[in-house]
Each structure stands twice: as structure tokens, then as C-alpha cells.
Amino acid sequence: MKALSVLLFFLIFNQSFTQEIPEKEVKSKVVEATVFLKGAQVLRKETVVLPKGESIVKFTNLSPFIAAKSIQLKAGGELTVLGINHQQNFLDKSVKSEELLKLDKDLEQVNEKIELENAYLSIAQEEITFLQTNRLIGGKNETLNVATLKQAAEYYGDQLTALKLQTIERNNTIKKLLEQKNNLQNQINSLAGEKEFSTGEVLVRVDAKVPGSYSFELSYLVDNAGWFPSYDIRAKDINSPVSLHYKANVRQDTKVDWDNIKLSFLQLSQVSLVLLRN
């Protein structure tokens, strides 16, 4: 693979990015991160299908804490990289508001269902009370034959059984709805309490000699990450040799998931890395 390394530069390309050029939005994943004592270098890989000629490849949903001047790009194939631009997307913050609105609507629907179930439960309980109050047919002084008593007992038993089962079913439904309500309320509280951040974007203007699939590797430095060492000393007993285990404790709050990625660690800071490169 022929690789092109390109450092970020801004001045002469800002106006050219606004021209009518096909734009390809790319939602890449973090595949590797080198974590420093303070900060990290993140690597993303993605294959993009491009037409012949100029295009803008737009990497979206990136961390808001990218060090813009650290951005590097490698592109494979018969492709010329014309420029790179970094920007913040403040419009994506509306996604959180939309999610809150949806959760509020779901909560309202659950509350309506709870209210309806409570109404049905109240009706069933009133019917049970009515049956229990009026279970005797006729007056106290009226003599009832065996057939009438048997018929009344069967009717009373059937109705009361059905109503009792109905109240159990309604109570179980209300219990489940209350659990849903609690979960929704917790989600709303969690989302409402989070600080809103913009998302980072990297726009790469390229010129493809032929249409096809092109591989991209995007790397950059990012804040809100780091690691610190710790040591675990163990021995089976006082006569056994001591084993020393070295552990790396990682912290990262870059607003981007690092699930199932390759991690490596350096006992350097971002500043030290930049100085070494220079």
C-alpha cells in the first residue's frame, strides 16, 4: 500500500472546502490507542468508496478534545490528499435534546397506562365490594329454596373469582409499568445531568484518479485520557519468592468509546511526544 502522510494545515483550503464538491460522511471506529501519562494518540481506520475526481471525506462523531495540529492521515491507492480541515459540530448537541424529548414522551405514555390500569383496578374492586354486600338474594326474612341458593352461590363464586384474578393481573401490570417508569426517569435524570459537548469532525479533500475503494488511517492526539502505573506484590507464604505484577490503570473520558481496541502505553506526556517529534 502506498501511504501518504499529511499534516494538518488550514489557511488556503478553508474557502475551497465550501465549493460544490461531493461529500462522503464516514463514521469510523477507534481501532488503536497509545495512552500517555497525560493524553493519548488515537488511530482510526476505514475504507471509503469514492468516485473519480475530487471529493470531501468527512470523519464525524470524533472526540471534542482533539489537538487539531496533531492530526495525521494516511491514504492508500491512487489518491491525492489536497487538504485537511478540523472543526467542531455544535449542531449534534441537538441529538441529546431529541433523545430527552423521546424519553419524556415515553414516560408520559407509561403514566397514562398506569392511570388507566388504576381505573380498571378501582372498578374491579368496587364490583367485588358490591358482590360481597349483595351476596344474599332477597331479604333476610325471605325463605330461599336450595336450587336458588345453589344458583346464587355459583354466580357469586364465578364472578368473584373472575374479579379477583382480574385485580391480580392489573396489579402485576401496574408493577411492571412502575418499573418502566423508574427506568425511564433514571435515564432522563442521567441524560439531563450530563454536560453537553460538541463533536469533532475532520474533513479531508481528496482527488481520486479512478473510482474505487480507498483505505484511510486517521490519527490524532486527544486530551481527557491517561494512565498511571500500580504494583501488586504477592507471595504464597514467607518462604516463597515474591512476585511483582505491574499494572496499567487507564482513564479516558474523550466522549468516544474505546471498546475492543488495541492499547499500548508510554511513560510520556503529549507534550514530551511533541518535543521528541520536533
Q: How would the blueprint of this fold be written?
A:
Elements: E1 4-7, E2 23-26, E3 29-35, E4 40-50, E5 53-62, E6 66-75, E7 79-89, H1 93-133, H2 146-193, E8 199-208, E9 212-222, E10 225-234, E11 243-252, E12 262-265, H3 270-277
Characterization of this structure:
With 278 residues, the protein is an alpha+beta fold. It folds into 2 domains: 4-92 and 198-277, no CATH class; 94-193. Helices cover 35% and strands 37% of the residues. It is built from 3 helices and 12 strands; from the N terminus they run E-E-E-E-E-E-E-H-H-E-E-E-E-E-H. The chain has helices at residues 93-133, 146-193, 270-277, and strands at residues 4-7, 23-26, 29-35, 40-50, 53-62, 66-75, 79-89, 199-208, 212-222, 225-234, 243-252, 262-265. The strands form 3 sheets. It has a 6-stranded mixed beta sheet, with no helix packed on it. Strand 3 (29-35) and strand 4 form a beta hairpin. The chain is elongated, with a radius of gyration of 34 Å. It starts with a strand and ends with a helix. Keywords: Receptor, Signal. Residues 217-264 form the DUF4139 domain. InterPro entries: CHP02231, DUF4139, DUF4140.
Would you summarize the structure shown here?
By secondary structure, this protein is of the alpha+beta class. It contains three helices and twelve strands, in the order E-E-E-E-E-E-E-H-H-E-E-E-E-E-H.
Q: Poorly predicted ranges (pLDDT <50, ≥5 residues)?
A: 1-18
Major β-sheet annotation? 6 strands, mixed
Radius of gyration (CA) equals: 34 Å
Mean pLDDT over the full residue set: 82
Number of strands: 12
Protein name: TonB-dependent receptor
InterPro entries: CHP02231 (IPR011935), DUF4139 (IPR037291), DUF4140 (IPR025554)
Domain DUF4140: 33-131
Organism: Cyclobacterium qasimii M12-11B
